[in-house]
Specification:
Keywords: DNA-binding. This protein is of the alpha+beta class. It has four helices and six strands. The termini are far apart.
Length: about 110
């Protein structure tokens, strides 16, 4: 998968928006105003995972703790194509779901989630 592929996957998820809060070369995908995945300028990707997935992915070396966001259980892949497309797509959908679930009931209802 490449940067455009990540965009297609993320923007296909319900109520997802794209913005560039850290400059035009950083894509931040949000649900309800909260970031669930971000592609950096150098082509790496970071995204939210569950507590268990964080432990498994980082301990096995499948991903590394995301800079500045590891305490919030985010992982980082230095290159988007480090994982198979279907595996990355599934993790992005899960990241979206984790972040969406933390929104208020009112916010979820307003977004149709």
């Amino acid at each position: 998968m490449d940067r455009a592929g990540v965009g297609r996957v993320c923007l296909a998820l319900p109520a997802t928006t794209l913005d560039h809060p850290f400059g035009e070369h950083h894509d931040a995908y949000r649900v309800g105003g909260k970031i669930f995945a971000m592609v950096g300028e150098s082509g790496g990707i970071s995204f939210k995972v569950s507590d268990i997935a964080y432990e498994v992915l980082t301990e096995t070396g499948h991903a590394r703790p995301a800079p500045y966001m590891a305490r919030n259980k985010w992982v980082n892949l230095p290159r988007i194509d480090d994982w198979a497309d279907d595996e990355l797509s599934e993790h992005l959908a899960i990241a979206h779901g984790i972040v969406a679930a933390k929104l208020t009931k009112k916010a979820r209802a307003a977004l149709g989630l």
